[in-house]
Design a protein that fits this description.
This protein has about 550 residues and is α+β, with helices and mostly antiparallel strands. The chain contains 12 helices and 23 strands. The strands form 3 sheets. Strands 11, 12, 13, 14, 15, 18, 19, 20, 21, 22 and 23 form an 11-stranded mixed sheet that branches. Strands 1, 2, 3, 4, 5, 6, 7, 8, 9 and 10 form a 10-stranded mixed sheet that branches. The protein has a two-stranded antiparallel sheet with strand order 16-17.
């Protein structure tokens, strides 16, 4: 097998994102390209995918901004026609991915778009290469903060996270590290040669650019905290090396082996964090100036002072260990949960079957244990419209009556939380029952369930003891609220007698964000780490089908 082949794919939301935020990363990757110039098989392949053409103000802006994007990429060093067979630079013009702060981009659409793009890139590489290679794909994009907080940037992150969770397999590598593997079907060989395999396995990771949320630090303080100290250290190194040369060191040095560069790429020992430095504000200015329709005065100031002009910090997105592919099944395992089949294009469930089994044993009444699970609503499948959510729930209740439902939420940090209730679909607060509860998945694979009752529930998850929090105060309100006016779903309100009490779990802003607080009704602590505020990656509601065995 030939040496590993690295493919780098930068995915952005708008033309000019690559110039405003990612140039330090791109230029350092191009330096790697230059270093490996003598060995084409080891040269990193750099590709850019922009999901919209930036026609927010007017449709006619799209072609203009597309041309500006190609020109900026050429200045950075990435030409549109660099890779034969597959263009290195692609701008999409898709009505479903329109530029605009009020536009909502579907996560499943973004995931499928990325999958198609990777298929095109890899097919081109296979046609050019005569040797079998281990392919490593590195996707670079925004993190959950979206760098500038633009909703389209955040949607790109959510789409890439959805791609990682839904389209890739979580496996253990030779070094026992958890990694993502993408399996792609090979296209027919146009040369008529028979291939030994009908698929390609690709090792994949996603690197997200860290958001600096403090504007004072992003544009001013970082210069004194990071840039000036590093620049002084670099000058000292240059001075010492100059003295070394003057003393005759060049006689003992190999040519080209002692260059000291201010711009460089550093990786942590575990390879999960990457820092790219670049001191070339003129290049960034020229690249942004190529986007002449967008190069207004405040973007000119941003080029000069923004930390992203000089430094990029990227971190690898963590994989969910509960999605680890299991090659062997435990003979003593409980029977799996049956789910109602969906269309092949539907996204995978947020919960693995092992997690479904655990929640079934911990939460559901015995009478529901044998019932198939039906996914009533999915944020990634049905969109974030609250009207759509209500419609799906209303149709379900009209068919099955006040059925029990299970709400599952996955945050952008990978946390899985949720709640169970005898009925969630009510336009006014509904008293809960002994079966109403909240839950969260722990890092060790177990579940913690908060139900506010003593000695009510107990179970296990993959051999781990189930932890139950009990002791609810008599009279606590375990109400379940679906408020169409405020567009919120809330579990429990407590008595409000203690500082910090509130909804045990609340989803709001069209499922974009949520909150969780201590709730006396469920005797729970906040279900997520931090201040109890979280951003939502995906939401699912399950019902339990009667009359099917």
């Amino acid at each position: 097998m030939a040496a590993d082949q690295d493919i780098w794919l930068l995915i952005t939301a708008h033309p000019d994102d690559e110039s405003m935020f990612f140039i330090p990363t791109l230029r350092n990757l191009l330096c790697l390209d230059c270093k490996n110039d003598s060995n084409d098989s080891q040269k990193p392949n750099i590709h850019l995918l922009c999901l919209s053409n930036g026609d927010y103000r007017d449709v006619s802006d799209g072609p203009v901004r597309t041309k500006e994007f190609y020109k900026a990429c050429s200045l950075i060093g990435i030409d549109e026609s660099k890779s034969s067979g597959a263009s290195s630079v692609v701008v999409l013009d898709d009505d479903r991915l329109k530029d605009g702060p009020n536009e909502v981009w579907n996560s499943d659409l973004i995931a499928n778009t990325v999958l198609e793009r990777l298929q095109t890139i890899l097919s081109s590489k296979q046609q050019q290469s005569t040797q079998q290679q281990q392919i490593n794909v590195n996707i670079i994009t925004f993190d959950q903060g979206g760098i500038s907080g633009h909703p389209n940037h955040v949607d790109v992150f959510r789409g890439i996270k959805h791609f990682l969770d839904e389209k890739c397999h979580v496996v253990r590598g030779d070094d026992e590290k958890i990694m993502a593997r993408l399996i792609l079907k090979q296209q027919a060989d146009t040369n008529g040669q028979d291939g030994t395999n009908d698929h390609t396995e690709v090792n994949l990771r996603v690197l997200a650019l860290q958001t600096i949320s403090n504007p004072l630090y992003k544009y001013f303080l970082w210069i004194f905290v990071e840039l000036i100290p590093f620049f002084l250290i670099w000058l000292v190194q240059v001075l010492l090396y100059t003295i070394y040369l003057l003393l005759g060191g060049f006689l003992f040095s190999k040519k080209g082996n002692r260059s000291i560069r201010f711009s460089r790429m550093n990786t942590t020992s575990d390879g999960k964090h990457l820092r790219c430095r670049l001191f070339d504000p003129v290049l960034v200015w020229m690249a942004m100036a190529a986007h002449s329709s967008q190069f207004v005065w405040y973007r000119r100031l941003s080029v000069l002072f923004s930390r992203y002009t000089y430094l990029n910090d990227l971190h690898e997105l963590a994989l969910d260990p509960t999605l680890l592919s299991e090659e062997e099944e435990d003979e003593d395992a409980l029977p799996p949960v049956n789910t109602v089949e969906e269309d092949s294009s539907s996204p995978k469930f947020l919960l693995s079957n092992a997690q479904m089994v655990a929640l079934r044993e911990a939460v559901l009444p015995i009478g529901l244990h044998h019932r198939p699970w039906k996914r009533i609503y999915s944020l990634s499948r049905d969109g974030d419209s609250f009207v759509s959510f209500e419609k799906h729930i209303t149709n379900w209740n009209a068919k099955f009556g006040d059925s029990s439902t299970l709400l599952v939420v996955k945050t952008t940090k990978g946390e899985v939380i949720g709640g169970y209730a005898d009925a969630i679909a009510t336009s006014s607060p509904r008293p809960g029952t002994a079966r109403s509860c909240l839950f969260r998945a722990e890092k060790d694979g177990s579940f913690t369930v908060y139900d506010g009752k003593q000695n009510s529930l107990g179970t296990f998850f993959e051999g781990s003891p189930h932890r139950l929090k009990s002791g609810g105060t008599e009279g606590s309100s375990k109400k379940i609220l679906l408020d169409s006016t405020r567009r919120i779903i809330a579990f429990g309100g407590g008595l409000g007698m203690k500082s910090g009490d509130g909804f045990g779990l609340c989803l709001e802003d069209g499922f974009a964000r949520g909150t969780t607080a201590r709730c006396e009704a469920f005797c729970n602590e906040p279900l997520v780490e931090g201040d109890g505020v979280f951003k939502v990656l995906d939401v699912e509601v399950y019902g339990f089908v009667f009359g099917q065995f």
